[in-house]
Amino acid sequence: MIDPYRNSALQCYRDCATRYKFDWELNLVQIGRGESHDVRYGVAFHAAMATLYTGSYGAATLQRAWEAFKDAYPADQYPGDLVGVQAGKTQQNAGNALWDYARTTWRQDCIDYEVLEVETQSTPAGQGEYDRTLTLDLVLRDKRSGGVIGVDHKTVGKYLNDEYWSKYEPSSQVRMYAADVKARYGSFAGFVINGFSMMHRDRAYTPRKGPNKGVQLPAGDWFEHARMAYHVNQRKMDAEEANLRATVDQIAASRATNTWSYNTDRCHGNSMFECPYYRICEPAYAWEDDRELIEEWYRVVCGRRVGNGRCQRDPNHDGDHDATPQPDAQPVPVVPFEMPALSNVED
Q1: Domain 7-244 has CATH 3.90.320
Q2: Around Cβ 194, how many Cβ atoms within 10 Å?
Q3: Helices 37-53 + 59-72 axis angle, to 10
Q4: What is the pLDDT of residue 33?
Q5: How many CB atoms lie within 10 A of CB 56?
Q6: How many Å apart are CA 188 and CA 146, to the nearest integer?
Q7: Three-point CA angle 317, 323, 36, nearest 5°
């Protein structure tokens, strides 16, 4: 059991305690199956964004960001068939989105904001048994007002509409991050979700309403970028602190008695998702009694979280932790994408 109280662990327990046991207590991963395409794509995009915000504005930094994306998730490791919500999460669509973001939003951010932190891991002090580990993508200080802002990057295969934005209010993740920023900087001006919608059209489409009304939109990959700001006051932070403590107490009770509830609403999400522990839960295997059967499909790994991934090496390995997953699909040919030049930029 390592790094047990990240927000993702707490949310996992709230969703399904049995999944928490397999994932965070036993550190089981499916044999021959690495992290999902969505997870790896998000990690790669985070690597690119981190490169942008740790460099000075210009074409050279953008090119380094693009290389960081490709290094984090090489094209020859993509699944052979991207369908549904994954269809637009291609390498070229990421390159187009990064280029557009760099010449617009990032350029303006370099003018308006001072970068205070990029992908910094912190553990709020003074919590004792309620310690949690947080990794915030970006912390900015507004040069105009002096306010400190937390930012989290999201890459999704859905529209950035009211339905999407509403999922972050209320949000344990947002409230935890807000409290952490306020505790470390003494003030908090707001939290921003920096969203990237990576989509695909099978055919050309002409909207009947909205900003593109009457304009034919071509078939193929397309992206959209938008931001949403959230206000988190002290009352919301206090509510999340109480929520954290209640969940940690429940985890401790499950661990002490080895009793873990399950939630069948979380076994299947949609055509692209099935809980990775379905093979264990469907026959109602128990790790203590059915380990030999379980180990035909799963293995125990180290469990240390390395950035946004999990160390895939054996539990008692020597040396550095390594989150490199093993691809579970055949590679597909990918047309190389050359990052266009940024206009009106001097490096």
Answers
A1: yes
A2: 19
A3: 160
A4: 66
A5: 8
A6: 10
A7: 135
Query: What integer pLDDT is reported at residue 341 of this predicted model?
Result: 76
Amino acid identity, position 139: V
Element housing 245 (H / E)? helix 234-257
Q: What is the pLDDT of residues 1-53, one digit of tens each?
A: 445 578 888 999 999 999 999 999 999 988 876 667 888 899 999 999 999 99
- Amino acid occupying residue 275: C
| Bridge partner residues of 136 (DSSP) | 120
Nearest to 159 by CA among 189, 126, 198, 123: 198
Cβ atoms < 10 Å from Cβ of 257? 8
The Cα–Cα gap between 81 and 79 comes to 6
Instruction: Give the pTM.
Output: 0.83
Contact yes or no for 9/20 (Cβ under 8 A): yes
Q: CA-to-CA distance for 60 and 347, rounded, in angstroms?
A: 7
- Give the bridge partners for 217, in sequence order: 205
Structure-block tokens of residue 210? 């909205």
Q: Positive or negative, the Cα torsion across 326, 328, 330, 336?
A: negative
Per-residue pLDDT of 121-168, as tens digits, reads 776 654 567 777 788 999 999 999 999 999 999 999 999 999 999 999
Say how many Å lie between the first and final Cα of the chain, rounded. 46
**CB-based burial label for 33 (10 Å; 0-12, 13-18, 19+):** middle
Amino acid code (one letter) for 284? A
Q: Residue 284 — left, alpha, or beta (φ > 0 → left; ψ -120 to 50 → alpha)?
A: left
CA distance 89 to 45: 10
Altogether, the residues listed in the chain come to a count of: 347
Sign of CA dihedral 153, 89, 86, 108: positive
CA dihedral 267, 268, 269, 274 (to 10 degrees): 90
**DSSP element (H, E) containing 195:** strand 190-201
